[in-house]
């Protein structure tokens, strides 16, 4: 019984993968154009949203460099890219789980808010230059 359920689940995944490859290239959503349109336009909300996306990610300095390069090549402004990268390196969910042992929830929330404000200001400053 369990084996048959697993086969059906994989069958649905395979069907989706096969169906996706049949869609014409003009109809597929390109991540590069989506990133350029949503975050690369220089709107005021792009930097805070990039920081909010980057905070829960878990990465180190050497692992974020290729991601930063690809974001810059896709047309993301330097301030938005740097704010995203700083937030993903400086703050992560495992880090906050460890800090929970020595910090109260209120202090952790203050720390997250402080990081969000500082990274957003740095991103806006670099985008304005």
UniProtKB/TrEMBL annotation:
Keywords: Cell membrane, Membrane, Transmembrane, Transmembrane helix
Annotated transmembrane regions: 37-59, 71-93, 105-126
Presence of the UniProt keyword Transit peptide in the record: no
Membrane topology, from the record: Multi-pass membrane protein
Any one cellular-component term (Gene Ontology): plasma membrane
Main subcellular location: membrane
Location relative to the cell: Cell membrane
Highest rank taxon of the organism: Bacteria
Membrane keyword on record: yes
Record-linked InterPro entries: DUF318, UPF0718_permease
Family statement: Belongs to the UPF0718 family.
UniProt name for this protein: Permease
Organism this protein belongs to: Burkholderia cenocepacia
């Amino acid at each position: 019984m369990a084996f048959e359920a697993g086969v059906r689940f994989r069958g649905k995944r395979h069907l989706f993968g096969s169906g996706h490859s049949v869609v014409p290239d003009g109809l597929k959503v390109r991540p590069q154009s989506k990133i350029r349109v949503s975050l690369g336009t220089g709107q005021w909300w792009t930097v805070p949203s990039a920081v909010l996306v980057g905070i829960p990610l878990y990465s180190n300095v050497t692992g974020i460099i290729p991601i930063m390069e690809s974001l810059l090549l896709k047309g993301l402004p330097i301030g938005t890219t740097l704010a995203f990268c700083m937030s993903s390196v400086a703050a992560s969910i495992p880090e906050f789980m460890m800090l929970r042992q020595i910090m109260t929830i209120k202090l952790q929330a203050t720390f997250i808010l402080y990081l969000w404000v500082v990274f957003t200001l740095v991103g806006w400053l670099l985008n304005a230059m």
